[in-house]
Amino acid sequence: MPPTNPLIRPCQTADLSAVTAIYAHHVTHGSGSFELDPPSLSDMTQRHAAIAQLGLPWLVACRGDAVLGFAYAGQFRPRPGFHYLVEDSVYIDPAHTGQGLGVALLAELIRLCEQAGKRQMLAVIGDSANTGSIALHARFGFRHVGVMQASGWKHGRWLDTVLMQRSLGLGQRCHPE
Fold first, then answer.
1. E-assigned strands of 14-172?
2. Residue 72 contacts residue 11 (beta carbons within 8 Å)
3. Is residue 74 part of a domain?
4. Is 176 inside any structural domain?
């Protein structure tokens, strides 16, 4: 029997323990994040609060009470000229990949960022071999805008960073509101 569609909703404080565990797995075993040590629950709580303070979305994908993945949009850089550019992050519990959770999360994240008046979204993808993340972003119209070669060192090897970008809403077609 195929899994039921996930519920995509805003991340709550009670979800952060599961979010921290999912991210810890990716930090420890993956190359999508260039962090070397998993952040603590306290660290993730502070990160969640910082995103909320900016008025940006942080979402979780759930089935029942289980958090199976999360996604959020963060400010690309703190300088005022970058106000309309956000960077997305999507992480799925490794036991639940291939079930459409990333698609559901990214679709809602894009919708909410457009609703918030953001104009561009950037995916900063760790490891050029991260084909799952590259394919997910391509599915939503992100285009390759660059590769920073050998930009990170993790798991005893050099890793590239793939940059992909897509317009949100009216993009650059007119002045922001």
1. 58-63, 66-75, 85-92, 120-126, 143-154, 157-167
2. yes
3. yes
4. no
Q: How many domains is the chain built from?
A: 1
pTM of the model: 0.94
**Which domain does 87 fall in, by range?**
7-167
In a domain, 2, yes or no: no
- For the cut 80, the answer to whether the pLDDT of residue 1 exceeds it is no
Whether 102 is in a domain gets the answer yes
Cβ contacts of residue 81 below 8 Å, gap of 6+? none
Residues 6+ apart with CB under 8 A from 169: 114, 117, 118, 119
- The CATH code of the domain that includes 100 is 3.40.630.30
User: Is the model's pLDDT at 152 over the cut of 90?
Assistant: yes
Are 13 and 45 contacting, i.e. CB atoms less than 8 angstroms apart?
Answer: yes
DSSP three-state, residue 88: strand
Can you give the three-state secondary structure of 12-55, one letter per residue? CHHHHHHHHHHHHHHHHHCCCCCCCCCCCHHHHHHHHHHHHHCC
- CB–CB of 61/101 below 8 Å? yes
Tens of pLDDT, residue by residue over 34-52, are 999 999 999 999 999 999 9
